[in-house]
């Protein structure tokens, strides 16, 4: 519990700092139109609310849980078993953020979704491919046509691949 509260608290402080920093540096905007300057603040605001909710939930669950509810010989400190999965998920996310600009949105997002779904326990290869393609296309359409935000196309071969896919779509 203490590790999760510490991690959530650090993230909450960092995201709050980024929220304020972006608010101070962003150019003035038209309140009737949401442009690219407001998206980071919107996402950071959502992260702040969800982290605060998680902290409250962890504290509430801690006080509801009694030592008698735990199996014999198990202490609360032994309940943390998903730290390697959490770290691997963070590594996948950092790798995705690193290669996104170089290989473009579509291929990197397909690979990211496949890797993350496999991390979460999906083992059927055709489901992994379908999830990767479907989620990538949904996000692509949402950002490109719904929000008019251009996504990275990559460099070299990957740029030509992205342009070919965009003409097909």
Secondary structure layout:
Elements: H1 2-25, H2 39-64, H3 83-103, H4 105-120, H5 125-146, H6 157-168
Helix pairs in contact: 1-2, 3-4, 4-5
Rg (CA only): 20 Å
Report, as a whole number of angstroms, the end-to-end distance: 47 Å
Shape field: globular
Task: Report helical residue fraction.
Answer: over 70%
Classify the secondary structure makeup into a structural class. Answer: mainly alpha
Q: Tell me the fraction of residues in β-strands, as a range.
A: under 5%
Number of strands: 0
* N to C succession of SSEs: HHHHHH
Question: Could you walk me through the main structural features you see in this protein, from its secondary elements to its overall organization?
Answer:
The protein is an all-alpha fold and 169 residues long. Helix content is 72%, strand content 0%. The chain contains 6 helices and no strands. Helix 1 packs antiparallel against helix 2, helix 3 runs antiparallel to helix 4 and helix 4 packs across helix 5. The termini are far apart. The mean pLDDT is 79.
């Amino acid at each position: 519990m203490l590790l999760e509260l510490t991690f959530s608290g650090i993230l909450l402080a960092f995201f709050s700092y980024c929220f304020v920093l972006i608010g101070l540096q962003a150019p003035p905007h038209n309140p009737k139109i949401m442009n690219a300057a407001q998206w980071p603040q919107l996402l950071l605001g959502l992260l702040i609310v969800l982290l605060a909710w998680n902290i409250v939930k962890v504290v509430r669950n801690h006080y509801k849980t009694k030592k008698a509810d735990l199996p014999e010989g198990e202490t609360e400190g032994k309940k943390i078993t998903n730290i390697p999965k959490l770290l691997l998920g963070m590594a996948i996310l950092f790798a995705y953020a690193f290669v996104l600009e170089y290989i473009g949105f579509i291929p990197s997002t397909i690979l990211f979704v496949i890797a993350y779904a496999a991390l979460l326990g999906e083992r059927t290869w055709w489901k992994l491919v379908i999830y990767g393609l479907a989620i990538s296309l949904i996000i692509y359409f949402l950002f490109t046509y719904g929000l008019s935000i251009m996504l990275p196309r990559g460099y070299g071969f990957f740029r030509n691949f992205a342009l070919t896919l965009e003409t097909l779509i």
